[in-house]
Design goal:
alpha+beta; 2 helices
């Protein structure tokens, strides 16, 4: 087996005088060189791509990456004035001053942090709930944006077109709710 410890230029000069055997050696030398060159080029490229394929793990950040275009809203409590949102794997529970509701699907934001999901809105009233009273339930749209640990959420009853409100929530905050009495 031929040693390849000598410099490339010396190998080429030596191999030129070997005729056909030398030509075969040159091809073998270039093949080895091209394999090394391919590894030298491919390895840094592959390493530079790794962070793009890994989950986005932001300390204190409130979205986790599913891929480059969609992110799941962080599970846990989001709260603000007159609202508390408890995000789970399958959606969320919403509590307001005089209402409550559910989001019936996982909350996934697009690359710009926007989301638009469906659920229900149940209006409440002051005083006791009467026996046999039917809940004032409406289908609802929950749309908004998430940026870092802040969320803007707009709630609209889809059957009546009534906009319940737009709320600003913070991740890890309990919310300030005053229930109807």
């Amino acid at each position: 087996m031929e040693e390849l410890d000598e410099p490339f230029s010396i190998r080429c000069a030596r191999l030129r005088g070997d005729g056909a055997r030398g030509l075969f050696s040159v091809f073998r030398m270039f093949r080895r060189s091209s394999q090394l060159m391919a590894v030298a080029i491919a390895l840094p490229v592959a390493i530079s791509l790794l962070p793009k394929d890994c989950a986005d793990q932001k300390a204190g950040g409130q979205m986790t990456s599913q891929n480059n275009t969609a992110e799941t809203v962080e599970r846990g409590t989001w709260g603000g004035d007159h609202i508390r949102l408890e995000v789970t794997d399958s959606g969320a529970k919403v509590e307001y001053d005089c209402a409550h509701g559910t989001i019936d699907q996982e909350i996934v934001a697009d690359a710009q942090g926007r989301f638009d999901v469906r659920g229900t809105q149940v209006r409440e009233h002051g005083g006791p709930v009467r026996r046999g009273e039917t809940a004032d339930t409406h289908p609802a749209r929950f749309s908004g944006t998430v940026e870092g640990n802040k969320m803007s959420l707009t709630v609209t009853e889809t059957d009546t077109g009534t906009e319940i409100g737009t709320f600003t929530l913070g991740y890890g905050e309990n919310g300030r709710i005053m229930k109807c009495r």
